[in-house]
């Protein structure tokens, strides 16, 4: 089988690459910085420098990865950009990065996968969103709004690609103990509830893709906490989430 992972050079993406390589699959990964890739001796791993913001580069990477006359079985979009703006201001560059990666980049990933898989009449697409994206309230962060957009985009592509035998799985994780999460929090995850390790997240994601689930939210405690918050009035939810953001910033 052939698996391509956008944002597969580190974190969850690279862990998924390792998972599929252990099964004997051919795996292609891409990212902006190939120096992030850990040292490895995987024969079936191919790496490409490509930014999901540039759809032509992404398409060329996928086409270069696939052997002639072979299908792309799985495409996973693990890219994402984060900056917190509920309890403070973010820069124009941070906002632009989130919009470019989380929305435009996601659209590009779906389009590349669609173009490659459409003639196959088979294939699986998965995208990493966020558990925060299930919440809808006026003053939610830009990150939350972009990840909610990812969930809605996935719903649209799922409906559109179903006649072509292509499944779309949306992954909405809570906090996963990755190097990136630790970097964002100065290696202190004490204020991150229900954190799970990367290997557990990888197993849950791979299983969801295999079973062609529409949406998976994990861990379960985070899932139910967010669903409980979702039923609150918007004004109350705004207040709760603002105070949460202030607390996480130690203010």
TrEMBL record:
The record's annotation in CDD domains points to:
SDR_c
Organism lineage string: Bacteria, Pseudomonadati, Bacteroidota, Flavobacteriia, Flavobacteriales
Instruction: Give the originating organism.
Output: Chryseobacterium soli
By its UniProt entry, which InterPro entries does this protein fall under? NAD(P)-bd_dom_sf (IPR036291), SDR_fam (IPR002347)
Q: What is this protein called?
A: 3-oxoacyl-ACP reductase
Determine if Oxidoreductase is one of this entry's keywords: yes
Transmembrane helix among the record's keywords?
A: no
Q: Name one Pfam family in it.
A: adh_short
Cited PANTHER family: NADPH-DEPENDENT 1-ACYLDIHYDROXYACETONE PHOSPHATE REDUCTASE (PTHR44169)
State the family named in the UniProt similarity comment for this chain.
Belongs to the short-chain dehydrogenases/reductases (SDR) family.
Query: Keywords for this entry?
Result: Oxidoreductase
According to the UniProt entry, its GO molecular function terms are:
oxidoreductase activity
């Amino acid at each position: 089988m052939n698996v391509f992972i956008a944002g597969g050079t580190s974190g969850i993406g690279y862990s998924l690459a390792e998972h599929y390589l252990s099964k004997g699959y051919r795996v292609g990964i891409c990212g902006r910085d190939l120096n992030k890739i850990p040292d490895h001796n995987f024969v079936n791993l191919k790496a490409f420098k490509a930014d999901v913001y540039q759809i032509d580069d992404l398409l060329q990477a996928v086409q270069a990865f696939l052997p002639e006359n072979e299908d792309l079985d799985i495409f996973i979009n693990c890219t994402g950009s984060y900056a917190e703006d509920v309890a403070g201001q973010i820069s124009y560059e941070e906002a632009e990065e989130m919009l470019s990666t989380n929305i435009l980049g996601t659209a590009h990933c779906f389009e590349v996968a669609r173009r490659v898989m459409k003639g196959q009449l088979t294939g699986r697409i998965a995208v990493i969103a966020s558990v925060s994206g299930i919440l809808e309230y006026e003053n939610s962060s830009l990150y939350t709004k972009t990840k909610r957009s990812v969930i809605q985009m996935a719903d649209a592509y799922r409906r559109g690609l179903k006649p072509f035998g292509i499944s779309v799985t949306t992954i909405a994780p809570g906090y996963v103990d990755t190097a990136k999460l630790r970097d964002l929090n100065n290696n202190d995850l004490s204020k991150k509830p229900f954190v799970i390790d990367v290997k557990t997240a990888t197993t849950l994601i791979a299983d969801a893709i295999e079973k062609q689930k529409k949406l998976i939210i994990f861990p379960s405690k985070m899932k139910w906490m967010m669903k409980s918050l979702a039923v609150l009035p918007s004004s109350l939810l705004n207040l709760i989430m603002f105070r949460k953001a202030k607390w996480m910033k130690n203010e």
